[in-house]
Every structure is written in C-alpha cells, then in structure tokens.
C-alpha cells in the first residue's frame, strides 16, 4: 500500500503484525473493551478555550473517569507529545470536572505506552499527578503522614465532589481526605505542606 502523503510504500503484512502486537498489550486491550455505560469516541474534535480545534485519536468515557489516548508512530518520549496530551486532558477536565482524567501516549511501533494520569482542577491549585511525581508522594506518605493523627486531614478540596473524584486513589494510598468546609484551622495548615512537595 502507498501512503500518498509521504509517497512511502508499506507492507500490509508487516503493518498488520505491528498493530496486532500492540493491541495484544494488556493496557491497549482495556481501551477497546466494551463495558456497561462505556462510550468510545474516535477521531473526535474538541474546541479549546482559545478557540482552537483539536482532534483526539480515542476517548474512552466511563461513569467515573475519562481516558484519552494519543496514538504515535516513530520516536518515543518527545516533549511535544506530552504537552499536546496534557492540553487534551485540560480540555476534558474543564468539560468534565467531576471525573478523573487519564491520558496515554501509545507508541505503536515500539509497543509501549506512556501514562499521564490524574489531571484535575484542585482548589485552589491545579495539580498534575504525573507518574514522574510518584516518588514525591511516596516521600509524603512515609515521612509526612505519620506526623499527624490519622483523623487529621491530609488532602482537602473546596467541595466534597472534588474529593470524590480521586477517592479511589486516596483509598489505595491510605490518605485521609475531606472537603475544605469541614476543616478547622489546625488541619488547614497541612495542605501547605502537601503543596510544597509538588
């Protein structure tokens, strides 16, 4: 088959092999599985705040979260790819503030997946929970959390709904959480320590 745009010739058998091997990855299979209440959008267009039009390769919409996948071929790890995907995640977060937004760069040629996850509007900050920040949270859990009583608040948000967006993640990490309105003055200081770690 000839790619008209670049005038390159591709072997259908080789291309099919690459695609099949990629789709056999456990993470990739998740994006194509049918589930109750799941919606899947392909090559869908969204408009950003600046009025620019963006086309997302694949968007998987579940009741509690949205996954956006950007398929790539060729070189991995280009910073532009991450910037582009984070912009997609910001757009989806603005449209769906009640949901967790997860993003993946899917490198088809090398059969690799890079995850950018937990982007959400977090009062009064915007916090980017990227995989590269994992060590900061491990440090927080091991060295900071023990200094407070378990009943003290360690993650807070303006409204309960914002805590509910990440309650699964907080539960996995054994991190107590509450809404801003439920805090007393002593507990409010803890948020400053958390944010200083980010």
TrEMBL record:
InterPro entries: P-loop_NTPase, PDDEXK-like_dom_sf, PDDEXK_AddAB-type. It comes from marine sediment metagenome. This is PD-(D/E)XK endonuclease-like domain-containing protein. Residues 37-112 form the PD-(D/E)XK endonuclease-like domain.
């Amino acid at each position: 088959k000839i790619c008209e745009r670049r005038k390159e010739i591709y072997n259908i058998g080789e291309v099919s092999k690459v695609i099949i091997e990629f789709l056999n990855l456990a993470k990739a299979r998740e994006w194509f599985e049918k589930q109750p209440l799941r919606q899947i959008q392909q090559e869908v267009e969204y408009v950003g705040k600046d009025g620019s039009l963006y086309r997302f390769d694949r968007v998987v919409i579940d009741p509690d979260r949205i996954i956006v996948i950007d398929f790539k071929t060729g070189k991995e790890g280009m910073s532009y790819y991450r910037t582009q995907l984070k912009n997609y995640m910001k757009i989806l977060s603005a449209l769906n503030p009640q949901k967790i937004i997860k993003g993946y760069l899917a490198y088809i040629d090398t059969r690799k997946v890079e995850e950018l996850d937990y982007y959400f509007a977090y009062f009064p900050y915007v916090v980017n929970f990227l995989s590269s920040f994992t060590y900061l949270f491990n440090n927080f859990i091991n060295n900071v959390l023990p200094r407070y009583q378990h009943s003290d608040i360690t993650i807070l948000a303006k409204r309960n709904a914002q805590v509910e967006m990440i309650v699964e993640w907080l539960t996995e990490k054994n991190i107590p959480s509450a809404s801003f309105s439920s805090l007393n003055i002593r507990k409010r200081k803890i948020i400053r320590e958390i944010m200083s770690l980010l």
